[in-house]
């Protein structure tokens, strides 16, 4: 358990007032080595959640003056100068819900995104590969003639988002903001009540070490935080320091991702420009396959499957991989299981038709095709196939005295509903509002009573969405046509015929 000294729990006295009282003695003294640099908010982690928080604090007039720092292990200068050819796309792409988009617009980050690289979609087609039952969501049908086409979500490369957030922070000026990249937090401990300095007992004090020669020379080695925010991902050091427990399990599944090019759609969509996301649940293969649209007939693939299948897919030639993606949206479970075990051809025959391609062509002739399949995958971007382990984690609370967790440090969920990063954006919106409220009401931003509001707003919401994704994963992992398959197909078919229930589900998916 994290030990908090008694002074951290007694009524708050502003440390700058305390140091002001002794400033006469300290005015000319050089700063002793052991005195850490003091910040109002220190964020560990420069992923979308950490940078989102910093951008939000800089955007609000109430919090822009706070002295804030962010520590990130990786080189954020590389993230700032990230650039890809216009026909290439990163394989880490997230579907941002309308709520996340409005938050990013509100904090002024959206205008820094390269919008030629994002893709909205208005329609979602989801079906069960085992039973064939399906559901489709069409937000364009709900759009009135006087408004822009409503979207289900906007596909955005994570790197595009990170670069935009960095630009937004940079545009807010250097004053009071320090970004230490190529720097890792190697330890965190409670500070001490220094006889000649501020009382930092109960304040987290971070030891920061450079991770390479590119680290900034101005980087302090010790930083004290009035409020320490853990945006440091699934293995959060901040969460360990605060001794916050997590529940969870590994799904024993991997998410295979890739950037895929698609053939021209067979039918013209109406309204013109409508784009569709496709997801087919494959219970016998361990999870769903999803194709989500990117600009110019490109798409991002997320195929959640067993570790063995993921390893198999990653070793296939591009032709065989494309054949498997097309098969996964078109063939029966039995055919797919067979193709997933086919021998891989020797490299020497890679120029001729791949056995996976011929197998698909032959089997397609004997398989009736449903109406909702995506256009054929025709190419795969070189080097874009990768896989990530899928896990569920939920912290027992998001706060502790002078500590708050956001994003994957607080919760990691199955990606089948594309909600992980969106939940992180929701956390950041809520925590930045909490800090804003505290500052404008003269409260201490690190006080547990201040932070209560944040955890109360976010914990149950995230538990509900993470839990729903977990139930869906489990429900759609029961193979065969038994009672579970019957119940889930009945559920989907009934929902598909009830416009009000569907509308309600869509509202929830939009965030
Ligand atoms: C296959 C897949 C598909 C997904 N698709 C979607 C989707 O469509 N929509 C969606 O909303 N979400 C999606 N997600 C989830 C989403 O990618 C994550 O939720 C999101 O990226 C987490 O962001 P974060 O900033 O919280 O954490 P991270 O991106 O993990 O950032 C944490 C940062 O902390 C830094 N750090 C860690 N330790 C230290 C330390 N000691 N010192 C300094 N820095 C440190 C790390 O270097 C890292 O940069 C998907 C996930 C997967 C696996």
List keywords for this structure.
FAD/NAD(P)-binding domain, alpha+beta, 34% helix, elongated, 511 residues, binds flavin-adenine dinucleotide
Query: What name is given to the CATH topology of the domain at 37-118 and 155-249 and 391-488?
Result: FAD/NAD(P)-binding domain
Helical residue percent?
Answer: 25-40%
Count of β-strands:
20
What is the C-level CATH assignment of the domain at 37-118 and 155-249 and 391-488?
A: Alpha Beta
Number of helices: 16
Largest sheet: 9 strands, mixed
Membrane topology: Peripheral membrane protein
Protein name: Ubiquinone biosynthesis monooxygenase COQ6, mitochondrial
Subcellular location: Mitochondrion inner membrane
Keywords: FAD, Flavoprotein, Membrane, Mitochondrion, Mitochondrion inner membrane, Monooxygenase, Oxidoreductase, Ubiquinone biosynthesis
Question: Could you please describe the fold and organization of this structure?
Answer:
The structure is a single chain. By secondary structure, this protein is of the alpha+beta class. It has a domain at 37-118 and 155-249 and 391-488: FAD/NAD(P)-binding domain (3-Layer(bba) Sandwich), CATH 3.50.50. Helices cover 34% and strands 25% of the residues. The chain has 16 helices and 20 strands. Strands 5, 6, 12, 13, 14, 15, 16, 17 and 20 form a 9-stranded mixed beta sheet that branches. Strands 1, 2, 8, 9, 10, 11, 18 and 19 form an 8-stranded mixed beta sheet that branches. Helix 4 (48-59) runs parallel beside helix 7, helix 4 runs parallel beside helix 13 (420-440) and helix 13 (420-440) runs antiparallel to helix 14. The radius of gyration is 25 Å and the shape is elongated. The model is unreliable at 19-32 (pLDDT under 50). The protein binds flavin-adenine dinucleotide.
